[in-house]
């Protein structure tokens, strides 16, 4: 299934209030900031949204809020992946009921299933919904890698819309693209590789740095769509230090600090994640300013 969405999507952070709950006022401002910046889709409760630390009630409330605030204005993609297939299926059904336009399902983590297990997992998720499903390959977090042959098998599932690639291996990504190109889209899930993945035919990108700089990320993607490589490179070159700053510590620690620096109250991550170290805050502030954004 191709053409679910093209362009840019933001892997949204979930802002937490001082009392530990979700800060919906801040989340609403973040949604408006993304829409104003031209973002094509919002990914809610992906890894960057810290769903592993949230209750099912909280996740339901976040999905409901996003749908009420943004449905029809921007595509909504809700994260439903789990290391338990039954839980992923249940979450996928709930996401469809709550207004998702599409599903992002990370590979089962920690269990380290086989390639056959990956395929069976996505078959079950896709069978649970009529919505487009995007697989998320991030072996650095999950311990599981969707290899090109398995990605090709997934591409024949009717509502499997794409794969978000964050394996970090361009050779593997190119081979995956070759195998799935006629039937399924590929999305960059690694901001450092946004430009080369778009260059090999990627349909779009799912970005962390666009929490801070949605307009700039969108402009880079538009330049690539227009085959203006010089302009795309110029924008990406300017963004790269900020991208690096977003990963000085584990995601989403730095990007939350960066969002707060530009006036979006992101709060701090939930334990076991910790607040950004002071030396990295200084780097983040400098990189935000060098990217042409104002620090409040």
Describe what this molecule looks like in 3D:
This protein has one domain (7-215): Aldolase class I (TIM Barrel), CATH 3.20.20. It has twelve helices and eight strands. The chain has helices spanning 24-36, 56-70, 85-97, 115-127, 139-142, 148-154, 170-180, 194-199, 214-225, 229-245, 253-261, 278-290, and strands at residues 7-11, 41-44, 75-79, 102-106, 133-137, 160-165, 185-188, 204-207. Strands 1-2-3-4-5-6-7-8 form an eight-stranded parallel beta barrel, surrounded by five helices. α4 runs parallel beside α6 (148-154), α6 (148-154) packs parallel to α7 (170-180) and α11 (253-261) crosses α12. The longest helix has 17 residues, at 229-245. The protein is globular. The protein starts with 6 loop residues before the first strand and ends in a 6-residue tail after the last helix.
Which short descriptors sum up this protein?
296 residues, alpha/beta, eight-stranded parallel barrel, 13% strand, globular
Q: So, the CATH homologous superfamily?
A: Aldolase class I
Percent of residues in helices comes to 40-55%
* Range of strand content: 5-15%
**Strand ordering within the main sheet:** 1-2-3-4-5-6-7-8
What's the CATH topology name?
Answer: TIM Barrel
Radius of gyration: 18 Å
Shape: globular
Class computed from helices, strands and strand pairing: alpha/beta
Distance between the termini: 43 Å
What CATH first level would be assigned? Alpha Beta
Can you count the beta strands?
Answer: 8
